[in-house]
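Task: encode each sequence below as structure tokens.

Item 1
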Amino acid sequence: MMSGASPGPPVEAVHVSAPSVHRIVRLDYPVRIGAHLFGGLLLLSVLLDRAPATSMWVALAVTIVAWPHVAYWVASRCANSKKAELRNLMVDSFLMGSYGGIAGYNPWIMVGMYAAMNSSNLSVGGSRHALRGLIALIAGALAGGAAMGFEVRPDSPLVTTLLSATAVALYLTIFGISVHVEAGRAAKVRLALQDRNREIEAQAVRLDEARRHAEVANRAKSAFLANMSHELRTPLHAVIGYTELLEEELLDTAVPKTALPDLARIKSSARDLLRLINDVLDLSNIESGKVELHWEDVAVRELMDAIAASTRKLVLANGNVLAMEIQPGLDAVYADPTRLRQVLSNILSNAAKFTTSGKLGFSARRQATVDATGLPVETKLSSRSRTVASA
């Protein structure tokens, strides 16, 4: 026999969506790779005859090769990738300035790097960000110059001049291509949004048209129910009236009264049918917002006796017992007798329908309503039906 702990409730897997990468992160990534690659070539053309320490070559190689990928990795995983990319551009500005300082403040290198970084900072972050980038570039130039003892070498070999011009041209070309690609993507997104907006507008028009048709159909249905209710009530009133006349004539004559129970059943059935028709008319009035309440004093005992009599068959059909209770001194309530009777009849009928061999409590009592200070301000009648199921 194997035994073990009962399995616990299933644990739902939680899927955490990765933060969305801002478009400037993707835009700057290839530009950064090209810019630092040509920055390294420019440094190589200048430093070949200076033989700097091996540690500097290693540091420059790691920075030039690894930094673009590290910057993209960090920015793409930040919650605010645009803000992270702006910080990356500050690092780029500092590194480009340090390249110029290491190269002895070569004017071709300094101008090329300043033009590249300033265009990036302006296009991505605006004039304030470009100013901060200029400060970072100057700080990098001072740091790079300090690493080389602030040696100034304004003369440029021909190779350096050609590389500088090529670097600026390629940088601007790569930057332009990236901007063009992003602009194309933005245009596609804008067109997709326009198409989606047109679809939404068309759907809104269809929904509005469907709503108008539904309102027209609902008004037609309400008018039909109202007309049919009036048309059906007219012959029923005649049936009830003639039944009462026949009862009076039988009571005034000496003939046997054997037909009186049949007339009573006819009259009761006609009134039940009339009540159903009135309910249908009430539903139509409720939908059209034309319900009017007719307030008057209603005798509580008479009302409850009438409700108990009308639901007696339904109560007894399921073997239930009806216990009716009225608070002493409670004679009348100010209400709409028709609506109050409908509400109480429905409650009691539901209780009788869904209870078997149980006790149905039908009671009426006063309930005092108090204000914020706890003083009674009004006295109301509260009638309710409760069911007590037998064991």
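Item 2
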Amino acid sequence: MSIDEITAFIESLGAVLTLRPAPGDGTPEIAWGDRFFYYAPDGVVPPGQPFATVVTKDYPGEPSSGLDRPDAFRLNVHAGREVFRGRTGHDPRDAPPPADPAARDTVIVHPVYGRLGRLAVVDPGPGTAADVRDLLTGAHAAARARHGRRHPS
């Protein structure tokens, strides 16, 4: 799966605001090339973290995911406590960090934000395509539900 394929899938879920930091837009250089996905039916960045992100480089202070390779990236998804438990067998607060944060095409505990219920996939491919779609669909639904609680109709 490419970054553009993942972006198209996420945006097809509806009411998604995609931020794409780039030179000249006032965002920090470290974020250029990454993507941040929010449930935002009004087109305004909501409070809190995005439900998914794509990062194209290793961030300072994080364990390396090997993103210094051409076209490498890591998809990060807010899975939530129940999905996280189901996928890892651990509560997010008790989950160990991934044995290999650079494991490709494998769903892993996020190397930094696993304790917050985040999962990650470095270079998603055929082995994780169905998992990625399921995780993203669930994360989008959870973000939509949070928005609904904040903005009841």
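Check on item 2: Helices lie at 3-12, 81-88, 129-150. The longest strand covers residues 35-39.
End of task.
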